[in-house]
Design a protein that fits this description.
By secondary structure, the chain is mainly alpha-helical. The chain is built from 16 helices and no strands. It folds into two domains: 192 residues, Growth Hormone, Chain: A (Up-down Bundle), CATH 1.20.1250.20; 196 residues, Growth Hormone, Chain: A (Up-down Bundle), CATH 1.20.1250.20.
């Protein structure tokens, strides 16, 4: 039986879905980035270089990227709710075991497995919401889910950072893992059975066929490239920022250094603003301004002055979130037919950039410190500028793509 809702109001079923997906966003993104604030502590505990310790982040996002497409295809066959629940529960169990890792190698293996487990929520959430929520309430429901991912990512960084002044990295990881497990229980208990899901074949030929069209589209390939370089550069800054702030000349306590992750709130605000501006001014203009803001912030962060570092990283954060918001929405508008496949490939590029570039950046930081890292990220921003020029030429050849409105994707770093 279909429930008829008054326009502008949500049914109890839709409210349950929205609350459950908010909890899913919390647990998934808290788990995904829980190691980022721990990197200096992992280096101290295991005698690891910054680049090796950063694998605790890169392996998770890398394996998540590899699992995005197959998990999305699996959900088309077995159901969205099964995949999301299995993903959240498995990730929570792995997270609770991570503090007992006897060596860094064991910890890294656990983080890699957790990346595979985590893929089920970001790969499926948008399709699930589109199937279950009426068109009038879809934007609001997606907004709540995105808020959950944003708050979860922030909590996953702040909880361990604040715990480090009181205890070791093991207790810090345990604190965020217990919180993630509690949110998983909330999600599993609150998620109602699916009503709108219709199973479809998901064989290898069908999946490859779905992916073929986006991979042949020049504009989409350019956006995938932007996701790769911008996310890689952004996560590199935060991976090694803790090392810079806890060492000379700053030598901040771990809790104070960890509070820099509050700058993510600037990114959340920037995402909302740039989404509105893109509708009014055009995606290409706003995307260009966002990348330029990221470059300006990077330059400001170079001097060894705390205020300059904070302002610079704030601008980088706002610029990145703005660019990601516009680029991900543009993928949905530009996709010729299968938007789900295009979204999966965008997320694949996004998290693969975090994994590969975020790890390689450690080599630049190890050799010449922050100035070397800044030069490395500046090169990535230059590549992004070239891609933007390419995108501008493509949008001139194909009218309409710069102004079409489409739902934003659901990945938050």
């Amino acid at each position: 039986m279909t429930t008829t809702a008054v326009p502008g109001t949500a049914t109890s079923h839709e409210r349950r879905i929205t609350a459950a997906l908010f909890a899913a966003g919390l647990t998934t993104f808290a788990s995904m980035y829980s190691a980022q604030a721990l990197l200096p502590s992992l280096s101290n505990a295991f005698g690891a270089t910054p680049a090796r310790a950063a694998l605790a982040v890169s392996l998770t996002t890398g394996f998540l990227a590899l699992a995005i497409v197959p998990v999305s295809a699996l959900s088309s066959r077995v159901g969205r709710t099964r995949v999301m629940i299995g993903s959240a529960v498995t990730s929570a169990v792995i997270g609770l075991l991570l503090p007992f890792s006897p060596t860094l190698d064991v910890l890294l293996a656990g983080r890699a497995l957790q990346g595979v487990a985590l893929a089920g929520v970001p790969a499926v959430a948008m399709a699930y919401l589109a199937e279950e929520i009426g068109s009038e309430g879809l934007g609001a429901a997606m907004g709540v889910y995105v808020a959950g991912t944003s708050i979860g990512g922030l909590a996953g960084r702040l909880i361990p950072a604040f715990t480090l002044d009181l205890a070791s990295w093991r207790w810090a990881e345990a604190a965020v893992s217990v919180g993630a497990a509690a949110c998983t229980i909330w999600f599993v208990r609150g998620l109602p059975p699916s009503r709108g899901f219709i199973a479809r074949p998901a064989g290898i030929r069908i999946v490859l066929g779905d992916l073929g069209a986006p991979l042949r589209h020049p504009g989409l390939l350019t956006l995938f490239g932007l996701a790769f370089v911008l996310m890689g550069g952004f996560v590199s800054l935060y991976n090694y920022l803790g090392y810079r702030l806890t060492r000379p000349p700053f030598e901040l306590p771990a809790t104070v250094a960890g509070s820099v992750f509050l700058l993510y709130l600037a990114g959340t605000a920037a995402a909302a603003v740039t989404g509105l501006l893109a509708d009014r001014l055009g995606r290409r203009r706003v995307l260009t301004a966002s990348v330029a803001t990221m470059g300006l912030g990077l330059a400001i962060s170079i001097p060894d002055h705390l205020i300059a570092v904070v302002v610079g990283v704030l601008l980088c954060t706002a610029g990145f979130f703005g660019a990601h918001t516009v680029a991900s929405a543009w993928v949905g508008a530009m996709a010729p037919e299968n938007r789900g496949a295009a979204s999966s490939l965008y997320l694949f590029s996004y998290y693969l950039g975090s994994a590969i570039i975020g790890g390689v950046a450690g080599l630049a930081y190890a050799r010449t410190g922050w100035i070397g890292l800044a030069g490395f990220v500046a090169t990535l921003i230059a590549v992004a500028a070239v891609l933007l020029c390419t995108l501008a030429r493509q949008s001139h050849r194909t009218s309409g793509h710069d102004t079409v409105t489409a739902p934003d994707q659901l990945a938050v770093p």
